[in-house]
């Protein structure tokens, strides 16, 4: 019973500003109700904040209220995300859905409304085209439980939303750690590998493009140094305060990250607006690009692509 109680009071807080301390985290959440514990997660070696933490309330009602009042709060240049921390169990694994063919007019709230009949939604994202700001008709929704996601697939895959001429496709988002998904991944990315500069002609190009001389790349260990193993991803339009920990945190959920590098101004040490992430696995890198390209971070919209000699559009 204890675990169940904990599940209703324990929150995970993501996208915290780098400078925020554990005490500040505690005092922010104490404004909602009595906090039993607050823990900021730090790098074990270097000691810097990894940008997320856990807050456990005494009362479940305060935890609910903290989610409704603090989720989406702007802190410095970050928008924090507050949700229930998830006990690890098979019941909640693979509850992430990929939805395509949505009418472009549907907002994130509309999409959540369509899916919320089938269970509790942990988070959702509608992918947006950077140039027009319009929905690309693609979304990700993570349910609380696998069974709820199953239910949504059964009822909504092939369903035509009101006011739309086309049926939508609803399927489980590929979990790159599972071999059984590799076929689905290759189908999903096969059509896009050209646009991504995918594996076919990527190998030869990958050494030509180096936007920086390597003299201040900390010994060249960044963008070009590690690209002989793994897949190098180029991230453009980062804010000035972007740092390596933020890139680890953004790309880590998609799979094994070998290396991250934020390109800084030599004099001010502020981020110049771009960085690189090297991931071990092509499918995972493609999934990260697919999910994060067009992602809004603070007031910037990120452009994320495989690093190629063509630059980016």
TrEMBL record:
Primary subcellular site in the record, as a coarse category: other
SUPFAM superfamilies, per database record: RNA-binding domain, RBD
GO cellular component: dendrite; growth cone; perikaryon; ribonucleoprotein complex
Molecular functions (GO terms): RNA binding
Domain of life: Eukaryota
Keywords on record: Cell projection, Repeat, RNA-binding
Pfam families linked to this entry: RRM_1
Residue ranges occupied by any RRM domain in the UniProt entry: 9-87, 95-175, 231-309
Keyword Repeat part of the UniProt annotation: yes
Localization terms from the record: Cell projection, Axon; Cell projection, Dendrite; Cell projection, Growth cone; Perikaryon
Family: Belongs to the RRM elav family.
Record protein name field: ELAV-like protein
């Amino acid at each position: 019973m204890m675990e169940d109680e904990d599940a209703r009071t324990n929150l995970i807080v993501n996208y915290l500003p780098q400078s925020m301390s554990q005490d500040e985290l505690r005092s922010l959440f104490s404004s909602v109700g009595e906090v039993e514990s607050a823990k900021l997660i730090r790098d074990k070696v270097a000691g810097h904040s990894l940008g997320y933490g856990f807050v456990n309330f005494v009362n479940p009602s305060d935890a609910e209220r903290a989610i409704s009042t603090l989720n989406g709060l702007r802190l410095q240049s970050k928008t924090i995300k507050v949700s229930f921390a998830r006990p690890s169990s098979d019941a909640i694994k693979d509850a992430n859905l990929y939805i395509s063919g949505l009418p472009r007019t549907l907002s994130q709230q509309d999409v959540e409304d369509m899916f919320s009949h089938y269970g509790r939604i942990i988070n959702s994202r509608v992918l947006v085209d950077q140039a027009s700001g319009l929905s690309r008709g693609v979304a990700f929704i993570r349910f609380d439980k696998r069974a709820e996601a199953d239910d949504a697939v059964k009822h909504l895959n092939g369903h035509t939303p009101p006011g739309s001429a086309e049926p939508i496709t609803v399927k489980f988002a590929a979990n790159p750690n599972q071999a059984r998904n590799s076929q689905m991944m290759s189908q999903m990315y096969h059509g896009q590998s050209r646009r991504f500069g995918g594996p076919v002609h990527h190998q030869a190009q990958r050494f030509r493009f180096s936007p920086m001389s390597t003299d201040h790349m900390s010994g060249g260990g960044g963008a070009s140094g590690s690209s002989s193993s793994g897949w190098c991803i180029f991230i453009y339009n980062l804010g000035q305060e972007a740092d390596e920990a933020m890139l680890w945190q953004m790309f880590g959920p998609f799979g094994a990250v070998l290396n991250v590098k934020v390109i800084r101004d030599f004099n001010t040490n502020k981020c110049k607006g771009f960085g690189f992430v090297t991931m071990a696995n092509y499918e995972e890198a493609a999934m990260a690009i697919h999910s994060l390209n067009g992602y809004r971070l603070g007031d910037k919209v990120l452009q994320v692509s495989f690093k190629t000699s063509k630059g980016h559009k």
